[in-house]
Design goal:
Largest sheet: none
Strand content: under 5%
Radius of gyration: 17 Å
Helix content: 25-40%
Number of domains: 1
Distance between the termini: 39 Å
Order of helices and strands: H
Length: about 50
């Protein structure tokens, strides 16, 4: 359903991207695990920039 079918404007748009970390206990997370969560939560669903 399109917004414009119901109203002539959009007041709020929320883009929500996140990951819980794949079920890894934070105490057992590797740097690679933490980077994957950080990249998704900070940079969004798209590819993250090269480090």
């Amino acid at each position: 359903m399109l917004v414009r079918e119901h109203t002539d404007r959009l007041d709020v748009l929320i883009n929500n991207a996140g990951t819980p970390g794949g079920g890894v206990n934070p105490a057992d997370a590797t740097a690679k695990d933490l980077h994957a969560v950080y990249d998704t939560n900070v940079y969004g669903a798209g590819p993250s920039p090269e480090r």
